[in-house]
Design goal:
- It is a single chain.
- Helix content is 53%, strand content 12%.
- With 621 residues, it is an alpha+beta fold.
- The protein folds into three domains: 3-94 and 199-467, no CATH class; 105-198, no CATH class; 490-620, Coagulation Factor XIII, Chain A, domain 1, CATH 2.70.50.60.
Length: 621
């Protein structure tokens, strides 16, 4: 392959593609025939930081290329794979942590965190029924095995045994969804386990380590250095944080590394590779095609070994066919192990869960022929068209790259099966590292070649991040704005549950009701949405009317939204009885934490240090 002629063509076509996408000249590039990404161009000023960070990353990689030790370049790529996704999020969102949090807890964007917090775990073994119960709530749970919810459930148990750590982690996140009553019903551990998803950019960045060692094993150190510098530039990796799809490549690469070691005759590593693939399929059925890639590679590897061994005897004194059978047996044992454990405990086979998943998945109507192209195109677009071009050209030129050929055959079978239903850029992200390995092998280890391809890759990544709002959490809303301040002249200084204090209050007759104005001073970030109750006391000391129960601003600004060192104002109106006598009226005010148990009132501490469960406000004439 003549890179001097080929790379400028790849770079030029990539720039034309970037321009077509940027100005939306060909909407079909964003999909069609039942599914298409929406086009929403971000403001230039929001894109510039991403462009600057990408330029710094490329410059740093270029400078580190000359160092003899590889670990600096690996660490640089690791840092880039963490920082660039955050910069992509910042293109459309002011608060990166807020975005990572709501995408993690949203049932629409992801779902496993929601499932772990809401499933009745005493009956979870009947997972087909659990899947059906999430239809309409979270498609990602309705289509998937129990692997990911189990991870969050285990995290909830661990954090539940560490209440101090759980409370601290929860308080950091609570202001982001302080008025979300579904989340407020979660325990502090269930809030805290969201950090597992929030940190997904870090987990996704870990793929640079196995990516380097695999590429070096199959080619050389220079190709490995090329591959790892490309990982943080993949559009799917940086745009789909913090979904679990960005973590699957790490596990897939580790499983492939174990396969490579096993193919040298160490069957224990074949078992480990199969076990990791079994865990991946137990987490998500979309990773089943990875088995095809591994299978094709094992066959080609053994065929290649036979070509180097004219006697027909390969490593371990076994013929290739015998070795292939043994590899299949050991790999299969590891693969079925997670499913065997679940099956023995539950009585359900993998096909029982797969039937439920596919009945929902295949209900999405996608015309077969157009999507033969569109599924591959979306995956290529979000992997990186320049890298896809290098991989395919290397295979077409007949280079002895059995990994690239195995990936191509796997993709052909997968496309012809018609089982995909859009969003392959995210769903097939676990294939993308293998494209990087094949493309690095084709690049012939020249820094100038790397710069052309990397520059084109960066431009396309920035353009895609600028035009496609690919991930959102529509079931989550930003925290509400604080209420308007109201004047209140009567001092109080009464503290409720040592969490908040009534600084001032006032009350006036307003027609047939008494309107109370309250100014509260939060003393700490609260995790309980307190309720308040008020009861009118007539001049003769008898209760008048019914007790009024409320939350501040009609539940729109509960105490979980109150920020320390800020005054929170609230006003309520208490209707007077029709025959209300003139005189001095009082209001009995109290608070409680559970609306189902209003009798369990919080302790009120008066300025003199005495305590009670209610405070009398008055007199009001």
């Amino acid at each position: 392959m003549n890179m001097r002629r080929t790379l400028p063509i790849i770079g030029g076509l990539s720039l034309l593609l970037a321009l077509a996408l940027l100005f939306d000249r060909i909407p079909f590039l964003r999909g069609g025939f039942g599914w298409q990404w929406s086009y929403e161009l971000a403001p230039l000023l929001r894109v510039l930081p991403l462009a600057l960070i990408s330029a710094i990353y490329l410059s740093g990689a270029w400078l580190l290329w000359g160092r003899e030790r590889n670990h600096w370049l690996i660490l640089w790529a690791l840092m880039g794979a963490v920082v660039i996704p955050l910069a992509v999020i910042a293109v459309r969102n002011d608060d990166v942590l807020y975005t990572l949090f709501v995408r993690t807890v949203s049932g629409i964007t992801t779902g496993p965190h929601l499932a772990a917090a809401t499933i009745d775990w005493s009956n979870w073994l009947d997972w087909p029924t659990v899947m059906q119960s999430f239809v309409g709530r979270s498609v990602h749970v309705a289509l998937a095995p129990p692997g990911l919810p189990l991870i969050y459930h285990a995290a909830n148990d661990v954090l539940g045994a560490l209440p101090g750590a759980a409370d601290s982690l929860q308080r950091t996140l609570l202001p982001y969804q302080c008025a979300n009553y579904s989340l407020l019903a979660y325990s502090s551990a269930e809030w805290a386990s969201a950090w597992l998803g929030i940190l997904m950019p870090v987990w996704g960045a870990l793929a640079v380590w196995p990516l380097f060692f695999i590429t070096r094993r199959l080619s050389d150190s220079q190709a490995a250095r090329i591959a790892v510098t490309w990982w943080p530039l993949g559009p799917a990796l940086v745009m789909f944080a913090p979904t679990w799809n960005t973590f699957y490549p790490f596990v897939a690469l580790v499983a492939f590394w174990c396969l490579l070691r096993g193919l040298e005759g160490r069957f224990f590593w074949i078992l480990v590779s199969g076990l990791l693939c079994g865990l991946l399929t137990f987490a998500n059925f979309s990773l089943v095609p990875l088995l095809g890639l591994f299978g094709f590679y094992a066959v080609f590897h053994l065929w290649q070994s036979r070509a180097h061994d004219p006697t027909g005897i390969s490593v371990g004194h076994l013929a290739p066919l015998q070795r292939l059978v043994l590899i299949g047996v050991w790999f299969g044992l590891g693969l079925i192990l997670p499913w065997l454990v679940y099956g023995l405990a539950s009585g359900f086979a993998p096909l029982d869960l797969l039937h439920v998943a596919m009945s929902e998945h295949l209900a999405l109507d996608r015309p077969y022929l157009p999507w033969l192209w569109l599924h591959f195109w979306e995956w290529a677009l979000f992997t990186g068209v320049p890298l896809i071009a290098l991989w395919l050209l290397n295979v077409v030129k007949g280079k002895r790259d059995i990994l690239g050929l195995s990936l191509l055959l796997t993709m052909i079978v997968l496309l012809l099966s018609g089982t995909a239903r859009g969003e392959t850029g995210r769903v097939w992200l676990f294939f993308s590292p293998f494209v990087l390995i094949a493309a690095a092998y084709a690049l012939q280890n020249r820094r100038s070649n790397w710069l052309i391809v990397s520059g084109a890759q960066v431009i396309l990544m920035i353009v895609l991040a600028s035009i496609l709002p690919v991930i959102d959490a529509p079931d989550m809303t930003p925290p509400p704005n604080p209420p308007t301040f109201v004047s209140a002249s009567r001092a109080s200084g009464v503290t409720f549950d040592q969490n908040f204090r009534l600084e001032n209050w006032d009350a006036d007759l307003d027609g047939d009701a008494i309107t109370i104005r309250l100014n509260w001073q939060p003393l700490r970030q609260m995790t309980t949405p307190y309720w308040f109750s008020a009861l009118l006391i007539s001049p003769d000391g008898a209760p008048a009317g019914e007790t009024l129960v409320w939350q501040p601003l009609e539940t729109r600004y509960p105490t979980t939204c109150w920020q320390t060192n800020a005054i929170v104002s609230d006003s309520i109106s208490l209707p007077l009885p029709a025959d209300a006598p003139a005189g001095e009226w009082w209001i009995s005010l109290s608070a409680f934490g559970d609306v189902d148990h209003p009798e369990q009132r919080v302790t009120i501490t008066l300025p003199d240090g005495s305590t009670d469960t209610q405070i009398g406000l008055g007199p009001v004439r």
